[in-house]
RRM domain-containing protein
Amino acid sequence: MAELSKVIHVRNVGHEISENDLLQLFQPFGIITKLVMLRAKNQALLQMQDVASAMNALQFYSNVQPTIRGRNVYVQFSSHQELTTMDQNSQGRGDEPNRILLVTIHHMLYPITVEVLHQVFSPHGFVEKIVTFQKSAGFQALIQYQLRQSAVAARTSLQGRNIYDGCCQLDIQFSNLDELQVNYNNDRSRDFTNPHLPSEQKGRSSQAGYGDVGVAYPQMANAAAIAAAFGGGLPPGISGTNDRCTVLVSNLNPDRIDEDKLFNLFSLYGNIVRIKLLHNKPDHALVQMGDGFQAELAVHFLKGAMLFGKRLEVNFSKHPNITQGADTHEYSNSNLNRFNRNAAKNYKYCCSPTKMIHLSTLPQDITEEEIVSHLEDHGAIVNTKLFEMNGKKQALVLFETEEQATEALVCKHASSLAGSIIRISFSQLQSIRETS
């Protein structure tokens, strides 16, 4: 038996076991002064206040098998008499506080992007840079805060927590790096202090690297934002496995439809690459979406929607994409595409057409009367409400039918109202409450 020591050596510490779990195992026996997780070895070292406390713990656990989260752990005296900060540093990364965190994600059932990591880590302080990469240990990220105390607070609060229910568990250590190098702003790396970085190397697709990250649905470049929006699952009826990006829309009203109106409707469900109206079938159009998941949302939520007196048919096209030509409208660089920013928020708002539309980016001095006169040609307006969110004017407008609301959205999204280009989406609220 090893020499008596106040340091306890714990083995078989699986990655699902957090520091907190270990503390709970030993706290009944006395004050714990230090804890070092040796993640690479699935071990931990834990220093009690005195040898007597350590002896009590080991005596107790020689009769009772200690288990954490259903896993047996094995305890013995450590060969160390004392844990020094040096032991921790010999891990290269460990408990020496630093403003850069090394995050490993276990049980990664959903892909994780920079966007999601930023949502998770930014409540604890200003995140300057994030870099993600795939290692043999799994998916990892380096997160650089402006201040060291933000990194310490984030680690204390988030260590061992799951990003989504039951999966994507965070294992957080301090990195020994001084500064992260970020060359591109995209789904895999971001410098929040320099928004002007290119998104990719010239000549390389921005999604090419997704294969390296080993995500669950390779065709879903926004998969992490999707998981964030839908609470880790997917909306009922959505498989998340479709890889066809092009949608065929038929039974359109050829006298009233055009590419921009289709863009306004389909851009609720994803970014639009290009749109083509079929001249030989004037009530048909092809819409190419940013990826298969966005196309699946559009088919799911728009099937059977009423527009301009016709019930839309929306199906996946047999064409993988639309060939660019004189008769196609290009939208891939349009700044009206909604999913370039706040993708998670936009996914969350995806729904079938409703009677209520939500207007944003309104001028500060707008009145309800101006909103009504801008929209009333599309149908009877039952109610409106103007309000402010984060200092910005927004409005809800309730029509009598879904079709009227859809027409208003299709004709007036991205139109100019009192000098501002307005944004319109469907609201899932059932009614406008009179409260402010």
